[in-house]
Design a protein that fits this description.
Blueprint lengths: L1 E5 L4 H12 L3 E6 L14 E5 L17 E4 L11 H22 L6 E5 L24 H18 L5 E6 L1 E3 L6 H11 L4 E2 L5 E6 H14 L5 E4 L4 E3 H12 L7 E2 L1 H18 L7 H8 L7 H7 L7 H14 L4
Parallel strand pairs: 1-2, 1-4, 2-3, 4-5, 5-6, 6-10, 7-9, 8-12
Antiparallel strand pairs: 9-11
Length: 330
Amino acid sequence: MNILVTGSTGFVGGHLVRALSEQGDRCRCLVRPTSDRSRLEKLPNVEFVEGDITQPETLEGIAEACDVVHHLSAEGHVSAISEEAFQRFVRVNVEGTRNLLDECAKRSVERFVHFSSTAAMGLIREPVVDETCEPQPATPYQRSKLESETAALAYHADGRVPVLVLRPCMIYGVGGYGEFAKWMRLMRKGAFPRVGLGRNLTPLVHVLDVVQAALLAGERGVPGETYLVTGPRSYPLAELRKHILAACGVRRPYWYVPKWFMYAAAWALERLAGVTGKAPVVTTRNIANTVYDRVFSIEKARTQLGYEPKVTIEDAIPETVRWLLRGEPS
């Protein structure tokens, strides 16, 4: 097939383009002039087209003859709390998505796979969360992700573009510098305490499982639907910590901190961030996401897409941590 991929030089996008190329699809990668294409340049059946989703005039003809569009371009810092950050996120995540969809509406695209995140749902305090749960976004990043979903699905509802949405949880793997990398650095320094006395069940998904879900969505995804994408299960935070520290080759005390203290500290950091304009190291939402057990159902993705997560933390965390450590100062 002919596939258009935005965000192709990013973490997930790079892995997706490689997988598409390996299975013989022809990939058109939308890139900015400053994008680092070195990881993808030698792949067969890959072409690069320069453009920017925030500049609609640069998108003319980008989806011509494309069967499937994988839209991964996004902006966001999960800890950003300012209104200025929200407007920046909206410009890319919402308005940029509309610009791309306006162009796709002129073409015969069979599926538009919009990459969102479980962040769009906010923190839902249910034993198991699925696609029927009402989103409760709170932070600028979360709100912008939900708005981008709503904007994209409106094009499907209007019969203009057949859109479906993927919501992966926290993604880890070689090439990623997101929240998992932040966790690793804090745990390695002994600066990641045990907050509260619960199990702190945490979902995460390996990048190759996200790619698997994306490939299936491009072939079998039902337009108009939204799919949660996670790993095999949610893990107790202590279990993740054990694997991360073992891969780092260090031991650190797992000191206990009451929830009220961490909430107070995060609140203070948020107030400071409001003055400095810099994103805080930790927010009250980060603490809430750590304290509450979070379990997502992937039954819909299993049933409709045939998705089945294959990568285990026992194999993938050591590989990911070794890769991250190579980039750390000695």
